[in-house]
Amino acid sequence: MRSSTFSSAADRWLRTLGCFAVLFALTGVCAHAASCLRGVNIAGAEFGGPEAKYGEGYIYPSDSTLDWAAARSMTAIRLPFRWERLQPQLFGEFDPAELARLQVTVQAATSRGLMVVLDLHNYAEYGGDRIGNGVVGADAFGDFWRRLTPYFAANDRVVLGLMNEPADITAKTWFAAAQAGLNAIREAGSDQLVLVPGTIWTGASHWFDPQEGGSNAEHAVTIRDPKDNFAFEVHQYLDEDYSGTHDSCPRAGDAIDALKQVAAWMKEYGYRGFVGEFGGTGSPDCLQGLENMARYLNGDSETWIGWTAWAAGDWWGNYPLSLQPADGQERPQMEILAPFMDVDSAPAQCE
After folding, report:
1. Is 165 a known active-site residue?
2. 8 Å CB contact between 286 and 252
3. Which helix (H) or strand (E) holds 285?
4. How far is residue 108's CA from residue 85's CA, in Å, rounded to a whole number?
5. For residue range 296-342, what is the model confidence (pLDDT) as tens digits?
6. 3-class SS at 25?
7. Cβ atoms within 10 Å of 64's Cβ, excluding its own
8. Are 273 and 230 within 8 A, CB to CB?
């Protein structure tokens, strides 16, 4: 646990040393595997509503897509999935078929040498009910992670992402729930890296925004981890309102500035960060923005342990931000990002 008696520089040194000791002594994962998570989201398992049928309304990544990811020198993928499908009732048992799909996919990815970020893709809600509204409490969130963790705790290539893009929830309420989830993971016996997002869709551009009860930055500092092995997750798109829903990226420079501001905050407190989503279309300004963002993140690997761009996936079709190959051809966004995914080509950035 971080102590206020340490300077931020000493805190970061101890944090890094401890992480490397765990990696080498306990897990056998090479050092750059956990400090250089570079790859893509592979979407599909979060598609459709809670009642969608597998293979019709949602799908997990195919072997061919995982082969593609591994062949592109990625070190990691982020794997979105839905809470309600895995746990059909709060505090209830997991659905065996859905759990098996998740386990098979994780094993298939890690056997290809990829790290897997498990991404609970629920926006801080369950079945339409927001965490903290009286129906879904922090205890339910903790129960979910307490049940899920043992299935993956022995896999040293798994990273646990607490929640995708909490929205319409105050930072005060969210970070209390995040602490409950983190506590549950540790109580279940996991030493794995945990990713803790912020509110307002975890946007870096919103990290310091005033909220009722305090901003993300004000409440994030309350997080405590007995294993001291967590990072804050942020997302940052490059378009006009940072939503990733427009064809051009006129605010790419502002997006990078937002990441730099969060990085300065993390350096002050001795934290680490992970960019779980960023992306753009194939327009020239988006492509330039993607290149600039990847270069910046790789260049500050002391602070940013990695990133996963949005998004690949077997069912994207003509989605403008798709990174999935089309008719055997790479998307222009992947041609830009691919050189920045190859850790071995720039090992000094990952030491």
Report:
1. yes
2. yes
3. helix 284-299
4. 20
5. 999 999 999 999 999 999 999 999 999 999 998 999 999 999 999 98
6. helix
7. 10
8. no
- DSSP structure class, residue 26: I
Is 302 in the active site? no
168 Cβ contact list (under 8 Å, min separation 6): 123, 124, 130
Q: Per CATH, is 8-350 categorized as 3.20.20.80?
A: yes
- Which whole number is the average pLDDT over 70-88? 97
Task: Name the amino acid, one letter, at 194.
Answer: V
Helices 171-187 and 138-148 cross at an angle (nearest 10°) of: 30
pTM metric for this prediction: 0.90
Mean predicted confidence (pLDDT) in 114-136? 97
Question: Given 212, 277, 302, 351, which residue is catalytic?
Answer: 277
Token pair belonging to 236: 């940052």
Report whether 37 contacts 299 (CB < 8 A).
Answer: no
- Check whether 68 has a pLDDT greater than 80: yes
Q: Which of 46, 98, 165, 233 is catalytic?
A: 165
User: What's the pLDDT tens digit per position in 11-66?
Assistant: 333 333 333 333 333 333 333 346 689 999 999 999 999 899 999 999 999 999 99
Q: For residue 230, what is the enclosing H or E element?
A: strand 230-235
User: Which positions ≥6 away from 328 have C-beta within 8 Å?
Assistant: none
Residue percentage of the chain with pLDDT more than 90: 86
DSSP letter string, 123-184: TTEETTEEBTSSSB-HHHHHHHHHHHGGGTTT-TTEEEE--S---SS-HHHHHHHHHHHHHH
Tokens 């920045």, located at residue: 340
- What integer best gives the mean pLDDT of the chain? 90
